[in-house]
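Summary of Year 1 activities. Much of the first year was spent building the evaluation harness for sequence design. The harness presents a backbone, in tokenized form, and records the residue chosen at every position. We chose the following record to illustrate the format because it has been used consistently in internal testing since the harness was completed.
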């Protein structure tokens, strides 16, 4: 009787592992997925059959479907509908077409450190360096490292390890994820010498603190906050005079990496101005307003940059070939997505938003959303933001489509994933950072989300209170 029950057990019909691994679709997937991943997908499909979630005869089809959906990376592309241009949680700057092409070209063997004409070793990343110097001709030399924090660590280590770094108290900032400037500088072995107060620092404060133990003067753009009212700060040009008198280098961290003045961001410091005002070394990030890959940029006087380049730490923080290729292409290629988003015409944004709202409104007529209210899609004024610590408080006038708040989690979990802004009880879809050729995909994703939202109400009870709850913390 036991043998008969075993013979009738449907689990005995679950395909063997070897048979599943021999499927043509699995064989074809070996060019993009590892053997461990393939075996894991096979086990998952078999386990679903053992637990009764699918029939044994459906295991092969389920495995083929899983293979089609499986990528070699867990990162998902996202349509940024927040209106925040440099969104740190979404990887900051999206790369230009030229930079993407350069990444692909650099994925194999490239002459990153080779002079092909002579066959001799050459300076690493010469193309990216030349592109930087062409973009910011005020610099005599340039060096690229793997991120902005690394650039500051290298500068303070090479110039001031074991000595003092003089900086204003009003510039000892903390940025995202608990990153604090004082902690970073202390890790280099330099001693922090704070001068002035939180709201006011004068040239005399730097002068009084500068002495035989001074390694460098450091000026840092606060980036993600502003102090207004009774304030005072010392400009770079004034610090240059003091640095020359005392024979110490002047390091300026401008933060967001704006190469030159941008009228749309009148108070945002730029690389060219800091160098023209006399900084020995200027530091910036490559993946913010420059619109390139994650990188730390160091530009300045030849003597100072070479001192940094020859320090042993430079090897530990050097940029890889992909970063160098993407950075060069960002500087020499066409307009970046960051530049296009920053300077998007409000009228064009309104037209795109109205087109999206009209399409969505037709699907929402007479429908309810969780909470019992009638669903709607309307166009409302909405100010975008630079993000990434750049130009804090500066509005980027535009428009957004206002949807029910409960649509936000459905948009985030959809395909494609869409990240809206949740604010004042509404889901706001801002098209500033969405490429115009992606409007159709965004509309389809929003339509699917709203259909699911309305469906959750029609299938629920008690006045339509079923369905996903409100989201918070977006954008």
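For this record, the design step produced the sequence shown next.
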């Amino acid at each position: 009787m036991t043998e008969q029950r075993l013979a009738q057990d449907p689990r005995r019909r679950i395909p063997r592992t070897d048979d599943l691994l021999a499927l043509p679709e699995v064989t074809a997937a070996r060019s993009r997925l590892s053997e461990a991943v393939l075996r894991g997908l096979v086990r998952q499909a078999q386990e679903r059959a053992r637990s009764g979630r699918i029939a044994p005869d459906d295991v092969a089809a389920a495995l083929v479907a899983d293979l089609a959906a499986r990528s070699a990376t867990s990162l998902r592309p996202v349509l940024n509908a927040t209106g925040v241009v440099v969104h740190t949680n979404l990887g900051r700057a999206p790369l230009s077409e030229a930079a993407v092409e350069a990444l692909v070209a650099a994925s194999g063997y490239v002459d990153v450190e080779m002079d092909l004409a002579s066959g001799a070793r050459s300076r690493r990343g010469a193309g990216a360096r030349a592109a930087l110097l062409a973009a910011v001709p005020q610099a005599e030399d340039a060096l690229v490292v793997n991120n902005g924090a690394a650039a500051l660590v290298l500068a303070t280590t090479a110039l001031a390890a074991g000595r003092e770094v003089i900086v204003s108290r009003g510039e000892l900032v903390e940025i995202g994820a608990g990153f604090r400037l004082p902690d970073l500088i202390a890790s280099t072995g330099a001693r922090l010498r704070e001068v002035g107060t939180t709201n006011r620092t004068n040239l005399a404060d730097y002068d009084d603190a500068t002495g035989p133990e001074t390694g460098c003067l450091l000026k840092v753009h606060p980036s993600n906050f502003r102090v207004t009212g009774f304030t005072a700060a010392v400009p770079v040009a004034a610090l240059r005079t003091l640095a020359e008198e005392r024979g110490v280098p002047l390091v300026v961290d401008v933060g967001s990496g704006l190469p030159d003045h941008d009228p749309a961001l009148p108070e945002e410091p730029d690389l060219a101005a800091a160098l023209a005002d006399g900084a020995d070394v200027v530091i910036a990030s490559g993946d913010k307003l420059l619109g390139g890959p994650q990188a730390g940029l160091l530009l300045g006087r030849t003597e100072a940059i070479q001192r940094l380049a020859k320090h042993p730490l430079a090897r530990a923080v050097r940029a890889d070939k992909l970063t160098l290729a993407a950075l060069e292409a960002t500087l020499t290629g066409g307009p970046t997505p960051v530049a296009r988003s920053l300077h998007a015409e409000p009228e064009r944004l309104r037209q795109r938003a109205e087109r999206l709202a009209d399409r969505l409104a037709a699907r929402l007529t007479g429908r309810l959303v969780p909470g019992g209210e009638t669903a709607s899609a309307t166009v409302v004024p909405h100010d975008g933001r630079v993000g990434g610590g750049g130009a804090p408080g500066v509005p980027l006038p535009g428009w957004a489509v206002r949807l029910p708040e409960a649509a936000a989690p459905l948009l985030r979990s959809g395909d494609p994933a869409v990240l809206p802004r949740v604010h004042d009880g509404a889901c706001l879809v801002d098209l500033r950072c969405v490429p115009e050729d992606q409007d159709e995909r965004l509309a389809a994703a929003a339509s699917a989300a709203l259909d699911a939202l309305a469906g959750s109400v029609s299938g629920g009870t008690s006045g339509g209170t079923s369905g996903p709850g409100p989201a918070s913390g977006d954008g």
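The chain has three domains: 2-69, 95-333, 341-458. Quantitative recovery figures across the full test set are reported in Table 2.
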